[in-house]
Amino acid sequence: MHKGHDVFVIKDLSKIEGHASLEVKLKDRKVEKVMLKVEENRRFYQKAAVGKNIIALNQSLSRICGTCSAAHQFATLKAIEHAYGLKVSEDEVKLRKLLYYGNMIRDHAMHLYLFSLPDVLGYDSVFEFGKEHKDLVREGFYVQQIGANLAEMVGGRAIHQLNISLRGFNTSLDTEKLATAKQKLDSLKKYVKKLIKYYTKQPFYLDAVSEIYGCLKNDDFGFLEGTIRLNGAALSPDNYLDSIEREWKDYSHSYTYYYEGKPYLLGALARLNLNLEALSTNAKNLAQNYFPSHNIYDNNLAQAIEVMHSIDRSIEIINYFLDKGGVSPLMKDLPRIDKEAQGYAVIEAPRGLLYYSFHIDNEGKVTKAEIITPTAQNHAHMEASIKLLIENNLDLGKEKLKQEIEALIRAYDPCFSCASHFLRIKWS
């Protein structure tokens, strides 16, 4: 970059989930401003929840995101259950986790194999994989498909599952289906170990600009339950929103979030840094030489290890139901709705903590909703990391630096929604 003023713009960011662009302003070889513009978050889904009856609310809000539909379903249900003090049986908790592990396997596999692995191997996309790596594409689709099949087996569909409601699970599984699912899950392990090896050798490094991490801390790394940990503080869903600060930036359709005035990081890297001991034995053995880590690119490695963990825990749950002779529908009465209520929930979406809150009237209709996605909360951290990366690499040249920025953004696995490549860049 030359002396004086310089601006460059990357439009239509992709090989990520969704639509965003980047503008960076420099002066005398110093980064003055980084603007990561989220261009599709103005979707008004909080307002769309208002007036909806809670009975079918989880089905409506699952449409917020195709890849994370199960996260939005379970966050909705848990917030309503919190509002009315509803209890969930042990078997239903296990079925929720089993479905959700399938979602994690599918979601992480898509990102790792198709979006970020080309960066690690030095390719522009999977379409350029040579003979040495062509099998990785087939393996990636296989891992992704088995995860999708698991979610479909439990929930009726791979996404926007129909078998989940406030009444429980309308799911029947015989031992043959369970045993087949177990066998297929077990067949994934050799591919996931291979994937993990690639990410342990990835060539990128950037220290996390803020070592404030957030996750749900629990005993089994189950994603749906636990105590919120943020920079060492233990928080509950009902005080989470009061514990973080948010800022509106006029260049983006998303709020930017801070904790104690600083960016914070959510997602797989944060989860492994804070909850490593809760991993399955197999996953923990694979992770112990690499975590805790403050290298932001290790978010990819953390996701790969979470895939192994999700396989292990899924097999444990399937064994539980095999011992019981299968799964019958787990249905219960709907809650009695005769008073106003407030409910809160925080779960782990694939990309980090997902916050939900509802105010509900005495007829069971939502009067106010608040939904905060993990990518919105990681926004400030991404911008600060981009600034640091550029300042450390000003002599790389524009094209090479563009590639480095793209790889960094992909390491966060942001969910802006769905695309296939970074298309245009404008320099001025």
Care to give the gist of this entry?
This protein is α+β, with helices and mostly antiparallel strands and 428 residues long.
Tell me about this structure.
- With 428 residues, the chain is an alpha+beta fold.
- The chain has one domain: Orthogonal Bundle (Cytochrome-c3 Hydrogenase, chain B), CATH 1.10.645.
- The protein contains twelve helices and 17 strands.
- It has helices at 45-49, 57-61, 69-84, 90-121, 134-155, 175-200, 237-243, 268-275, 281-287, 298-323, 374-392, 398-411, and strands at residues 5-13, 17-18, 20-27, 30-38, 164-165, 168-169, 214-217, 227-230, 233-235, 245-248, 255-258, 330-331, 341-349, 352-360, 366-372, 415-416, 424-427.
- It has a four-stranded antiparallel β-sheet with strand order 4-3-1-17, covered by helices on one side. The protein has a three-stranded antiparallel β-sheet with strand order 5-6-12.
- A hairpin with a 6-residue loop joins β10 and β11 (255-258).
- The protein is globular, with a radius of gyration of 21 Å.
- The model is unreliable at 417-428 (pLDDT under 50).
> Largest sheet, order of strands side by side?
4-3-1-17
Can you name the CATH architecture?
Orthogonal Bundle
Q: In total, how many domains does the architecture comprise?
A: 1
- Could you describe the largest sheet, including whether it forms a barrel? 4 strands, antiparallel
Mean pLDDT: 89
Radius of gyration over all CA atoms, rounded: 21 Å
Let me know the CATH homologous superfamily: Cytochrome-c3 Hydrogenase, chain B
Q: How many β-strands, per DSSP?
A: 17
Based on helices, strands and strand pairing, what is the structural class? Answer: alpha+beta
State the oligomer: single chain
